[in-house]
Amino acid sequence: MGDDIMSARLIAGIGLRAGACLADLEALLALAPAPVAGLATLSDKAGHAALRELCDKTALPLTPIAGQAIAGIPTPTRSPDQIARFATGSLAEACALVAAGTGARLLGPRLVCPNGRATIAFAERKPL
User: Fold this and answer.
1) Interstrand relation of 118-124 and 105-106 (parallel, antiparallel or unpaired)
2) What pLDDT was estimated at residue 126?
3) What is the rounded CA–CA span in Å between residue 98 and residue 63?
4) Could you list the mean pLDDT of each consecutive 10-residue stretch along the chain, which spans 128 residues?
5) d(CA 64, CA 70)
6) Which of 36, 70, 101, 102 can pair with 94 through a Cys bridge, CB separation 3.0 to 4.6 Å?
7) Burial class of residue 103 (count of CB atoms within 10 Å of its CB; 0-12, 13-18, 19+)
8) CA distance linking residue 58 with residue 105, whole number of Å
9) pLDDT of residue 7
10) Which homologous superfamily is 3-124 in?
């Protein structure tokens, strides 16, 4: 791993639909404001082909997050569908926060792929 990844403190939380493709995820990851240390998504989505391709291509580790771990996580985005399904306003934002650990902060609300098939949110780990 390069020095950028070793010193990176950003975690990218990813939400994606079945139809998401590698190009969708690459376009969202390219919006990162700084080097990304890893990716996170719900355990059920961790095997998605496009996400596995992204991990293989970037060598970024993927942290699968259990659904109960994101329930109740407050997020700036408040999607009624996400609240009904996951008990949090944004899967991407909540996964990023959980994976980045205690004291993490979101750098902003989730970003949505133009076709709506994927979302990404960036959380910064608390400095040591």
Assistant:
1) antiparallel
2) 86
3) 10
4) 58 97 98 96 97 97 96 94 92 97 95 96 90
5) 11
6) 70
7) exposed
8) 24
9) 57
10) CobE/GbiG C-terminal domain (3.30.420.180)
Distances (CA, A) of 48 to 22, 25, 27, 41, 67: 10, 11, 17, 10, 16
Phi and psi at residue 70, to the nearest 5°: -100, -10
CA distance 70 to 79: 14
Q: What's residue 1's pLDDT?
A: 38
CB burial of 23-40 (b: ≥16 within 10 Å; e: otherwise) equals ebbebbbeeeeeebbbbb
Q: Which segments within 8-117 are labelled E, that is strand?
A: 10-16, 36-42, 62-65, 105-106, 111-112
